[in-house]
Amino acid sequence: MKRMMKYAVMILFMSVFFYYYNMFVPKNFLYLLIAFPICFVAINIIDKLFTNK
């Protein structure tokens, strides 16, 4: 159940992040340099929050 919740939170975060990011930043070369690293870092943080220690 925790694993499904982790993936649901990741998908929800990515959807909301890219929705609002597309509203404020035009799609050009900087889009790749800014959006994907931020998304990658955030996904790693979400993964660490849901991982048993």
Give the SSE order as H and E letters: HH
| Class by SSE composition | mainly alpha
Query: Which radius of gyration do the C-alpha atoms yield?
Result: 13 Å
State the shape.
Answer: elongated
- Indicate the percent of residues in helices: over 70%
Share of β-strand residues: under 5%
Number of separate strands: 0
For the terminal residues, how far apart are their CA atoms?
17 Å
Number of helices: 2
Model regions low in confidence, pLDDT < 50 over at least 5 residues:
none
Average of pLDDT: 87
Write a structural description.
The chain is mostly helical and 53 residues long. Helix content is 85%, strand content 0%. The chain contains two helices and no strands. Helix 1 runs antiparallel to helix 2. The longest helix has 23 residues, at 2-24. The protein is elongated, with a radius of gyration of 13 Å. 0% of the residues are buried. The model has no long low-confidence stretch (mean pLDDT 87).
Q: How do you describe this structure in short?
A:
By secondary structure, the chain is mainly alpha-helical. It has helices at 2-24, 29-50.
What secondary-structure arrangement, pairings included, does this model have?
Blueprint: H1 2-24, H2 29-50
Which terms summarize this structure?
53 residues; mainly alpha; 2 helices
